[in-house]
Design brief:
By secondary structure, the chain is an all-alpha fold. It has one domain. It has four helices and no strands. The chain is flat and about 50 Å long.
Length: 67
């Protein structure tokens, strides 16, 4: 653990990303609760009913970065 703490923040972030990239979880590995399924179903139905209301990622990203 001490060896990890000696890494810079950037190096630790990169290490975490490298580990994350090795994961290939399936739906069975990450089960959803019934409440989560209902939320996702509701959001999908809302999107399908009005796809024009979707906000492009770049717009969301720009807005978040400006805060």
């Amino acid at each position: 653990m001490d060896r990890l703490r000696r890494l810079s923040v950037a190096e630790r972030v990169q290490l975490a990303q490298d580990i994350w990239d090795t994961l290939e979880p399936t739906a069975e590995d990450l089960p959803l609760t019934e409440e989560q399924k209902e939320i996702l179903d509701r959001r999908l139905a809302e999107h399908e009913a009005g796809p024009a209301s979707a906000i492009p990622w770049e717009s969301v990203k720009t807005r978040l970065e400006s805060k």
